[in-house]
Amino acid sequence: MPFQLTILGTSSALPTSNRYPTAQVLNVLGRFFLIDCGEGTQMQMRKYKISISRIDHILISHLHGDHIFGLIGLLSTMNLLGRKKDLHIYAHSELQRFLQFQLDFLYPADPIPFKLVFHPLNFKKEQIIFEDKRLTIKSFPLNHRIATCGFRFDERPPLPNLIKEQIQHFKIPIREMQRIKEGDDFTTETGEVIPNNLLVHPQKPGRSYAFCSDTAFLETIAENVRNVDLLYHEATFAEDNRALATATYHSTGKDAATIARKAEVKKLLIGHFSARYKDQSAILDEALLIFPDTIIAEEGLTISV
Amino acid sequence: MPFQLTILGTSSALPTSNRYPTAQVLNVLGRFFLIDCGEGTQMQMRKYKISISRIDHILISHLHGDHIFGLIGLLSTMNLLGRKKDLHIYAHSELQRFLQFQLDFLYPADPIPFKLVFHPLNFKKEQIIFEDKRLTIKSFPLNHRIATCGFRFDERPPLPNLIKEQIQHFKIPIREMQRIKEGDDFTTETGEVIPNNLLVHPQKPGRSYAFCSDTAFLETIAENVRNVDLLYHEATFAEDNRALATATYHSTGKDAATIARKAEVKKLLIGHFSARYKDQSAILDEALLIFPDTIIAEEGLTISV
User: Fold this and answer.
1) Beta-carbon separation of B80 and A14 below 8 A
2) Does A285 reside within a domain?
């Protein structure tokens, strides 16, 4: 079952001829989450064969133009494609005003026939913003010029299977099975306690992904993204532009790698590159010194976690 | 001196993996006019090496999303690039409200430091919207679901050069020369009238381009675009979708070619293709039957008129 990230845009505020503003799609078990929606996102989705109609959840880190200008075009296209399903948007509450004005302007007589369900983010503390049997998504504060959140996706793996032979051996009744799958030990009629790990197959750990953009270096992020399999962290600059990074509340390659190391993540993906850099080797090189399993985000890159 | 069109987008409302929403740039003698500004226009400008800071005039045919969603990103980028020069926008007066809301939202404390000069279009009749020594631009009504204008660009060629030998022969005084360049005959002291064409080199005719999108077939367009060197006319559908073309106020390849033939233009460029067509051969073929000098618009196509 997929847990797969597709990168649609990796530029910072100024797009270049081959880097688009921020957008990504995470496919979790066939459910598609769009993270940020810079200008051109819908065209990038076409190019990389992401179905627009399968997007039911959009997460917006913050309300800078390079993370939101693709929304109105995407909503218009969903309308043209005949969408009826609700669309959930997790963002700063002001985004609703921004989008509603544009929708009212474009469709004064004939409002779009699907509902936008807005979920306001909390920019002060970590918060669960989505939860079901298979997935938990949390938002957490970043440190940018305006209110900004990162997002962490944790797959909740299916309950483990029972070990058939043991179930028969200990004559475990059906009514006990669900509790054992959920982690309980089993006590026999004679009072003997059989530990859970003798009764179930080992559970596969859930997969995890975290997205952090835009942000200055912020130590608390390491806790929010601890142990994720894949961390996307912005690295707008290299250390040669440290003063600019500080002034604009952005990170360097070194900053991103420092968070990755502290958080003991498995892999680091860096992006949101300043148009100042013709290639990103300076940013990558300083990250690799600190966190060797670092790669560069590129449009169209797909990573299976 | 250039009179050169670059195509940035040729899709209709739904972009595809290789066709972007409408946008074009006309370079008239080093001055750049942006015509429509669909989503992704600024990225297409980067890709095809059109300088964003050289755009001083933007013409917007109508206020459907696929012709305007790139504006806010373009304005934001101009702001980031430090623009100070006025930017002239020729459009329906309501566009000002649409853009101003977004700018106020994005830059509440720190408005953009360049002025947007709005020039409202007249959707009832032909009108000169720009005029200087070298160029005249007219707008004229099209027939779409909402108020829509086409645009015609006519180069005014430089005044002709005097024929040096004739000037000496007829002893023409300096004070008369400007009038002769502007077309006057010359009367000698003895009362002899020397016709203008003996005194000046032949003048090169001015080059011309017209843009018509979006529109249903409208016979008056042929007058508005009469004899242009290059006509861009939308051809969203082929005749197999005649009913849809009528219902949505769009043209077919046959419609576009009929206008081109009636108007006796030199060359026809068709675009704004529906995503229904995987290739445009059906649209092109029916146009070629009526107007042989027809070509298909593609992203990145550059035509020197």
Assistant:
1) yes
2) yes
| Number of domains, chain B | 2
- A222 near A263, Cβ under 8 Å? yes
Residue B111 CB contacts under 8 Å (≥ 6 apart), including other chains = B103, B104
Pairwise CA distance, residues A234 & A11, whole Å:
10
Query: Residue A180 sits in which domain range?
Result: 164-198
Length of chain B: 305
Q: Is the dihedral of CA A293, A299, A300, A305 positive or negative?
A: positive
Backbone angles phi, psi at A91, to 5 degrees: -165, 175
List strands edge to edge, sheet with A116-120: A116-120, A87-91, A55-59, A31-37, A23-28, A3-9, A302-304
Q: Are B139 and B124 contained in the same domain?
A: yes
Q: What part of B 54-113 touches A (C-beta under 8 Å)? A: 63-66, 69-70, 72-73, 76-77, 80-81, 94, 97-98, 101-102, 105-106
Contact residues, chain A, for B42 at CB < 8 Å: 15, 39
Q: Is residue A243 over pLDDT 90?
A: yes
Could you tell me if B172 and B57 lie in one domain?
no
Token pair recorded at residue B2: 């250039």
Q: Which of A101, A98, A125, A97 is nearest to A111 (CA)?
A: A101
Residue B266 and residue B208: Cα distance in Å, rounded?
10
Which of A39, A43, A80 shows the shortest C-beta gap to B73?
A: A39
Mutate to test the interface with A, among B69, B104, B276 (most CBs of A within 10 A): B69
According to DSSP, the β-strands at A267-271 and A230-234 are: parallel
CATH of the domain at A120: 3.60.15.10
DSSP letter assigned to residue B122: P
ipTM above 0.95, yes or no: no
User: Residue A50: how many CA atoms within 13 Å on its side-chain side?
Assistant: 28
| Residues B37, B67 contacting (CB under 8 angstroms) | yes
DSSP state letters, A70-105: THHHHHHHHHHTT--S-EEEEE-THHHHHHHHHHHH
Mean pLDDT confidence for B3-25: 96
Asked, for residue A304, whether it belongs to a domain, the answer is no
Residues A208 and A275 in one domain: yes
The DSSP call for residue B213 is: -
Strand partners, B10: none
Same domain, B96 and B182: no
Nearest to A20 among B21, B43, B70 (CB): B43
In this prediction, residue A204 carries a pLDDT of 83
- Integer Cα distance of B177 and B192 in angstroms: 17
Q: How many CB atoms lie within 10 A of CB A226?
A: 15
Q: Are residues B253 and B182 in the same domain?
A: no
**A38 and A152 together in one domain:** yes
pTM of the shown model: 0.92
> Per-residue pLDDT tens for B209-229?
999 999 999 999 999 999 999
| pLDDT, tens digit (0-9, with 9 covering 90-100), for B253-262 | 999 999 999 9
- CB < 8 Å to A107, chain B: none
